[in-house]
Amino acid sequence: EEPVLLAELKPGRPQRYDWKSSCETWSVAFSPDGAWFAWSQGHCVVKLIPWPLEEAELCKASERKSRGGKTEARSCGAAKEKTLECGQIVWGLAFSSWPEAEVGDTEPACAVGLPCLILATGLNDGQIKVWEVQTGHLLFSLLGHQDVVRDLSFAPNGSLILVSASRDKTLRVWDLSRDGRQVQVLSGHVQWVYCCSISPDCSMLCSAAGEKSALLWSMRSYTLIRRLEGHQSSVVSCDFSPDSALLVTASYDACVIMWDPYTGEQLRTLRHVPLHSAVDYSSEVHTSSLRSVCFSPEGLYLATVADDRLLRIWALELRSPVAFAPMTNGLCCMYFPHGGFIATGTRDGHVQFWTAPRVLSSLKHLCRKALRTFLTTYQVLALPIPRKLKEFLTYRTF
Predict the structure, then answer these.
(1) Total domain count for the chain?
(2) Please, are residues 261 and 199 in contact by the beta-carbon 8 Å criterion?
(3) β-strands 265-271, 290-295: how paired?
(4) Which domain, by its residues, includes 41?
(5) CA quadruple 26, 304, 190, 121: dihedral positive or negative?
(6) pTM of the predicted structure, to 2 decimals
(7) Do residues 67 and 48 touch, judged by C-beta distance below 8 A?
(8) How large is the average pLDDT for residues 315-337?
């Protein structure tokens, strides 16, 4: 079933803006609970939209688009959407929850007894600004990077640890629970760092730069675990599976490589080839250069965006895409936390929402996912169980 375009958000075009403030949407993000959506719509602006939890709302927006022509950004949560004026071009976005405040707590983020949502924004001048979503108040300005903050990743365990990736060739670790203190500077890349991703179990960090290898770091000791070598061109995007057992990296070489992060073994390569034979294969590497890859929430699908103007959806067990959708100038993609659709950002500042396969996970996969959440590959291999079962639990049965 091919992805269907449900809705499209378009930025306003204010007349008076510095020409350097491009309108590209380099980052989109859903809050962990799926209640908010953020997109860097260009012109130094981030839009925050309270998100409808039911797909029916998206369908209504799509119907309004088809009946009346254009769908404005106000079609989803018009009365409550917020605009954050960041003062610089926005490259990276990441949500996290701030724990409930207690009596006597002086933190500015939350009212007593209420958790709140925060959004970190990575900016063109190297700053990271952290905002409280409900009020739009600026909580922190984190200083340290010397160039564009290209990507951001919060530890999923709610510890308020934030990792930033920058064009200054470093990653930095910040602790927002300690007033935004810089905990560590990770050096090892020799090119701009494009992407960073913390594993769901918070044990590992993957970073991708303009290099042929991705780097895997320990989130406990902040030391380099290994280099993942296998791509033929710059690695630009990475993501962990929901159980932390798999890692995918996407490169300008038009390939996605699936890795076992514990052993460094390459498990599978997904090649982005032209859909039509009429396409000039000599330009394949250029036209199919990848921009973004992400796992679906249940861990059975991948989505990729490439320069050949296609959104592809891949099933974990197959080497060819199961669905395609035409999109122009795609830069990033992200699944809705509860599944069912994908958000993509484009060079012209638009955000598009596409249907994605809904799947009922098998009992086998649910058991594997539950076990792999707390067992490493080495621990699985040490279990006194049949070899075929070990192969299944370590994703070697593709």
Answers:
(1) 1
(2) yes
(3) unpaired
(4) 5-12+20-56+79-100+110-275+285-360
(5) positive
(6) 0.88
(7) no
(8) 91
